[in-house]
Design brief:
Layout: H1 6-22, E1 26-30, H2 33-37, H3 40-53, E2 64-67, E3 79-82, E4 86-88, H4 96-106, E5 115-116, E6 123-124, H5 131-134, H6 152-157, H7 162-170, H8 173-183, H9 195-204, E7 211-216, H10 225-232, H11 234-248, E8 252-257, H12 262-277, E9 293-298, H13 308-315, E10 339-343, H14 344-356, H15 358-362, E11 372-379, E12 385-390, H16 395-402, E13 412-417, E14 423-426, H17 436-441, E15 450-455, H18 460-474, H19 480-497, H20 503-519, H21 523-526, H22 530-538, H23 540-548, E16 563-565, H24 574-578, E17 584-585, E18 593-594, H25 604-608, E19 614-616
Parallel strand pairs: 1-2, 7-8, 7-10, 8-9, 11-15
Antiparallel strand pairs: 1-3, 3-4, 5-6, 11-12, 13-14, 13-15, 16-19, 17-18
The structure holds flavin mononucleotide, iron/sulfur cluster (3 copies) and FE2/S2 (inorganic) cluster (FES).
Length: 617
C-alpha cells in the first residue's frame, strides 16, 4: 500500500494497531548481539516449530517476534511475553517447550526462568518492575526490543512516521529547525553540539544541493548503542533523517555503517526498501511533493573514519583522513556541499521531539543537557547491557541502581566514559550528574555513551596504556603531534608499566600531552592524551607506586608482580591443569607449590582458583 497522504498514514496506523491488539499474546525473542551469541536464533526457531505443530488458542506462529536488544544483556537470552511483560532470562532452546506448554497454553509461570532480585531474593514477573528497567526512560531506544525491526507495520503501530506526517502536513522547514533548537538536543555522537544550530547553519547556506549523513561508525571499544538502534529500530533513524532533510531541503542522504555491523546493514536496507515501497521515502513522500532518498555506505574500518570530515571523504570514495577544522562541514561537507552529519541516536530522537514537542523534551534532563542518553554498560558490572536514562542522573545511580553494582563483591575503582579519548573517573566522582559539561569538567567526557566499569583488580596505568595503544594504531598519521606524540606517550606509559621509568618521564608525559592537545588536527589527537591525563589526575599514587616502588597495586603489570600460593590452598588441582608451562606442582588435597623461575605470569592459575589461594604481590 502506498501512503500518498498524511491522512492515509493515520488509517494505516489504526489498522496496524488493531492487528497487534488482536494478538492476545506476543512472544518477543531478543535477537540483539548478546542474546544472539547465546543462541537466541535457535530459541526463535524452536518457538516457531512448536507453534506450527500445536494449536493453541490465541497464539499463532505470528505471535512469535524477533526483536533487537531488550537491554539486560547480562541475563540473555531473553524472552518477553506481552501484554503481561513476563520476563524470562537465561533461556535455552530446551526451555521453549515448557514455556509454550505452561505459559502460553495454561497461563502459568516457569518459575526457574523468572528474574530473582539479588537483594530481596523475590521473583519478579513483569520486567518493568525489575530495578534495571524501572529507573530508565527510553526515548531513542523506545522501540528497540519491542518491535520486529523487519516489520514496518510494527513501527507504524507504535506511532512511527507520525512525526514525519506532522512535519509534512503542518510545519515549515524553519519551524522544524526551531523546534529541534528549542528542545536543546545536543548531538549524541560525542561532541555535544546543538543539533538545531547545526541544521540552522546548514539550511542558511546558498547551494544547489545539501546532504544529510547519519554517522553509524561507532568505533569506541565497548560501545554498542548505535548498533542496537540500527539493528533493532532502523525506521526511527530513517524518520529522523527524512525530517532533517525536509528541514534543510536536501534530496539525498547517506548512512555510514561500521564495517563490523553486517546485521545493521541488512536491517537498514530492509527498512529503506519498505519505506520506499510505502511512499515514505523516495519521490513525493506521503504525497507532499517532497523528494528524499537514502543510501547506505559501509565504513572504512578505521576509528578515525567516525570523525566528521574523514567520514565525508570516505563516503565520497576517498581515503578517510580528517581535515583542519577551520573548514566547517555544515558549509563544505560531502562533495564540498553543505552537509548535516548527525549520530544515529541523535536522528532516532528527532521523531520524539517533533511528536511530543520541544518543551516536553527540554523538561527532561538538565538545563544544558536536555533529554535522555543511551549508554552501554560493559566491564566489571553485574548488569552489562544497554540502558537509556534522563540526563542528570548520577554515575552512582547508573552503576549501582541500574547496573547492579560490581560483581563478586569486589570494590569499584573507576568508570571510563567517552570512549578511547574519554577519561576514567574514580569513586569520589560517583555522585556527579551525568551531563555533557559536568563530565568534561571532571576530565572525562560523555562521548557516544560507552561506559566501562573497572574493579579493584584493574591497574589504571595499564588502562591508559591500553587506550593509548588503541589511539596510536588508529591515528591516521596525517599530522605530527598526533602521529609522533601519541606514539611517544604510549612508549613512556609502557616504560612505567615495566617499572623502568622515573618521575622525569611522568613530567615529560604531562608536557607532551599539552602539545598533542593543542597542535593536533582533529579530535582524535586533541583528546588523545585524555586516558593518560584523567588517570594521572585521579590515580597519581598508582603511577608513583610503579615508578618509586616498582609495584603494581592492581596486580596487573607483569614485570612488577609475582604469583605465589598461600596456605588457603586445598589442593584442588585446578591450577595445575591450566598452567601452560607446568610451573605448579602438588598432589591432590595437599598444598601446591609455584616455581617462580618457570612462571610466565599468564594469570591463568589466579583466574581458576576458587579458594583465594593465589596471591599477587
Ligand atoms: C576520532 C573521532 C571518531 C569519531 N567517531 C564517531 C562515531 O563513531 N560516531 C559518531 O556519531 N560520532 C563520532 N565522532 C564525532 C563526529 O565527528 C561528529 O561530531 C558526530 O557524528 C556529529 O553528530 P552529532 O552532532 O549528532 O553528535 C568522532 C569524532 C572523532 C574525532
Ligand atoms: S590528529 Fe591524528 S587522526 Fe587526526 S588528523 Fe592528525 S594524525 Fe590524523
Ligand atoms: S587452584 Fe587454588 S586451591 Fe586449587 S590447587 Fe591451585 S592454588 Fe590450590
Ligand atoms: S601465572 Fe600462569 S605460568 Fe605462572 S604459575 Fe600461574 S598459570 Fe603457570
Ligand atoms: S542482546 Fe538481548 S538483551 Fe541485549
Amino acid at each position: 500500500m502506498r501512503i500518498d497522504s498524511t491522512e492515509k498514514l493515520g488509517q494505516w496506523q489504526k489498522e496496524c494497531q488493531k492487528r497487534i491488539e488482536a494478538q492476545k499474546k506476543r512472544v518477543l525473542v531478543c535477537l540483539g548481539p548478546g542474546c544472539l551469541a547465546g543462541g537466541s536464533d535457535q530459541i526463535l526457531e524452536e518457538f516457531k516449530n512448536i507453534l506450527a505443530q500445536k494449536k493453541i488458542k490465541d497464539v499463532t506462529v505470528e505471535s512469535i517476534k524477533k526483536t533487537g536488544c531488550h537491554g539486560l544483556c547480562a541475563r540473555g537470552p531473553l524472552v518477553v511475553i506481552e501484554p503481561e511483560g513476563i520476563f524470562y532470562s537465561k533461556v535455552k532452546k530446551a526451555n521453549v517447550a515448557e514455556i509454550v506448554e505452561k505459559t502460553l497454553e495454561k497461563g502459568e509461570l516457569v518459575e526457574k526462568l523468572l528474574y530473582t532480585d539479588p537483594e530481596s531474593k523475590k521473583k519478579i514477573v513483569d520486567y518493568k518492575e525489575i530495578p534495571f528497567y524501572a529507573r530508565q526512560m527510553k526515548l531513542s531506544l523506545r522501540n528497540v526490543g519491542q518491535i520486529d525491526p523487519d516489520s514496518i507495520s510494527d513501527y507504524i503501530a507504535r506511532g512511527g512516521y507520525a512525526a514525519l506526517a506532522k512535519v509534512l502536513k503542518s510545519m515549515k522547514p524553519a519551524k522544524v529547525i526551531d523546534e529541534v533548537s528549542r528542545s536543546g538536543l545536543r548531538g549524541r555522537g560525542g561532541g555535544g553540539f546543538s543539533t538545531g544550530r547545526k541544521w540552522a547553519s546548514c539550511a542558511k547556506i546558498e547551494s544547489d544541493i545539501r546532504y544529510v549523513i547519519c554517522n553509524g561508525d561507532e568505533g569506541d571499544p565497548g560501545a554498542f548503542m548505535d548498533r542496537c538502534i540500527m539493528e533493532g529500530d532502523p525506521h526511527s533513524v530513517l524518520e529522523g533523517m527524512i525530517i532533517c532533510a525536509f528541514a534543510i531541503d536536501s534530496p539525498e542522504g547517506y548512512i555510514y555503517v561500521r564495517e563490523e555491523y553486517p546485521l545493521a546493514v541488512v536491517n537498514l536496507r530492509n527498512a529503506i526498501d519498505a519505506a520506499r515501497q510505502h511512499g515514505l521515502l523516495g519521490k513525493d513522500i506521503m504525497g507532499s511533493g517532497f523528494d528524499f532518498d537514502i543510501k547506505i555506505n559501509r565504513g572504512g574500518g578505521a576509528f578515525v573514519c567516525g570523525e566528521s570530515s574523514a567520514l565525508m571523504k570516505s563516503v565520497a570514495g576517498e581515503v578517510g583522513e580528517p581535515r583542519a577544522k577551520y573548514v566547517r562541514s555544515v558549509a563544505k561537507g560531502l562533495h564540498d556541499k553543505p552537509t548535516v552529519l548527525n549520530n544515529v541516536e541523535s536522528f532516532a530522537t528527532i521523531p520524539v521531539i517533533i511528536d511530543k514537542g520541544a518543551d516536553w523534551f527540554a523538561s527532561i534532563g538538565t538545563k544544558k543537557s536536555t533529554g535522555t542518553k543511551a549508554f552501554s554498560l560493559a566491564g566489571k558490572i553485574t548488569n552489562t547491557g544497554l540502558i537509556e536514562v534522563p540526563m542528570g542522573i548520577t554515575l552512582r545511580e547508573i552503576i549501582y541502581d541500574i547496573g547492579g553494582g560490581i560483581p563478586e563483591g569486589r570494590k569499584f575503582k573507576a568508570v571510563q566514559t567517552g570512549g578511547p579519548s574519554g577519561g576514567c573517573l574514580p569513586e569520589a566522582k560517583l555522585d556527579l550528574p551525568v551531563d555533557f559539561d559536568t563530565l568534561t569538567e571532571a576530565g572525562s567526557m560523555m562521548g557516544s555513551g560507552g561506559m566501562i566499569i573497572m574493579d579493584d583488580r584493574t591497574c589504571m596505568v595499564d588502562v591508559a596504556r591500553y587506550f593509548l595503544n588503541f589511539l596510536v594504531e588508529e591515528s591516521c598519521g596525517k599530522c605530527v603531534p598526533c602521529r609522533e606524540g601519541l606514539y611517544q606517550l604510549h612508549k613512556l606509559c609502557v616504560k612505567i608499566c615495566e617499572g623502568k621509568a622515573d618521575e622525569d618521564d611522568l613530567a615529560l608525559m604531562e608536557r607532551l600531552s599539552k602539545v598533542i592537545q593543542t597542535a593536533s588536527l582533529c579530535g582524535l589527537g586533541t583528546s588523545g592524551p585524555n586516558p593518560f591525563l584523567s588517570t594521572v589526575m585521579y590515580f597519581r599514587d598508582e603511577y608513583l607506586a610503579h615508578i618509586r616502588d616498582r609495584k603494581c597495586p592492581g596486580g596487573v603489570c607483569k614485570e612488577l608482580i609475582t604469583y605465589s600460593i598461600n596456605d588457603k590452598c586445598t589442593g584442588c588441582m585446578a591450577c595445575i591443569r591450566v598452567c601452560p608451562v607446568n610451573a605448579i606442582t602438588g598432589e591432590k588435597k595437599k598444598l601446591h607449590v609455584l616455581d617462580q623461575e618457570l612462571c610466565t605470569k599468564c594469570g591463568s592459575c589466579y583466574a581458576v582458583c576458587n579458594f583465594d589461594a593465589i596471591d599477587i604481590v
